[in-house]
Amino acid sequence: LSFISCDHLVDLCKNTISDSEMVNKVRMHRTKCANIVKNIIAPYFKKDLTTDLGQGKFCLLLDESTDISAVR
Questions:
Q1: Angle, alpha carbons 4-5-6 (nearest 5°)
Q2: Contact by Cβ (8 Å): 2, 33
């Protein structure tokens, strides 16, 4: 999901989970969403991934099939 969709995601949650008082108080737009991902979620998953990989060897494959900068 893009950060732009955060503007609409909270509204969707409010419509879907209308009986929750906490959800109705949530306010989040793309700036706050980006900061939450960058400063809270990303460090957690980075640490989790580092723990899972440990000192083992791994291979990283990149798929650029949707990269519009690729020249044919």
A1: 90
A2: no
Q: What is the pLDDT of residue 48?
A: 92
pTM for the full predicted model: 0.56
User: Which H helix or E strand runs over 32?
Assistant: helix 30-36
Give CA torsion, residues 46, 48, 54, 59, to 10 deg. -60
Q: What is the pLDDT of residues 9-53, one digit of tens each?
A: 888 888 888 788 888 888 888 888 889 889 999 999 999 999 988
53 vs 38, 48, 66, CA distance in Å?
Answer: 21, 9, 27
Name the residue ranges covered by the structural domains of the chain.
Answer: 3-53
